[in-house]
Design brief:
By secondary structure, this protein is mostly helical. The chain has helices spanning 2-22, 33-64, 102-108, 110-127, 135-158, and strands spanning 75-76, 100-101. α1 packs antiparallel against α2, α3 packs across α5 (135-158) and α4 (110-127) packs antiparallel against α5 (135-158).
């Protein structure tokens, strides 16, 4: 599977470069063939990277004789202190007795996290000249933005706070 995904990545990236150079430049506005190939290239590349990461976690868990979930950066802390767990609701705090998944934390307050992400996006756009930012600075802003969202989602989930708007 990894070999097939790697070959597909190579083919898609080659077609993207050829289409961009000889047909027309990539344009998100017009959603042209070069843009579609570029998006496919990115998505297949990301899928390949996730597969490699998953294989690395499985390999390490096999060598260390531990659960693969214990090595994942998506799992943190314990939910033992969470109030009134509802075992029938997989997204409620306390339903995963020993680990909290970031996905469950975001799922617990989906609408609030969505609104917070939009507000943070607006703040970033007002505070930072995004068109002239260097790539390392843009990456740092993006990682800070995502870290803020993750910390807020995890804090609300760990304390059993459900914000209903």
């Amino acid at each position: 599977m990894l070999f097939q995904l790697t070959a597909l990545c190579g083919i898609l990236w080659t077609l993207t470069v050829i289409t961009d150079a000889s047909v027309e430049p990539v344009s998100r506005k017009y959603a042209n063939l070069a843009f579609i190939l570029w998006m496919l290239s990115l998505f297949v590349s990301m899928g390949s990277m996730f597969l490699v990461a998953d294989m690395a976690f499985l390999f390490l868990s096999h060598i260390l004789h531990v659960s693969p979930a214990s090595l994942s950066p998506l799992y943190v802390g314990s939910t033992a202190a969470s109030p009134s767990p509802d075992p029938s609701d997989p997204s409620s705090p306390g339903s995963m007795p020993t680990r909290v998944c970031l996905i469950s934390a975001v799922d617990y307050n989906q609408f609030f996290v969505f609104l917070l992400a939009n507000v943070l996006t607006g703040l970033v756009n007002m505070a930072v000249d995004t068109l002239h930012a260097s790539p390392p600075f843009a990456l740092a802003v993006l990682l800070g933005y995502l870290a803020c969202l993750a910390v807020v989602a995890l804090a609300l989930f760990a304390n059993g706070i459900k914000i209903k708007l």
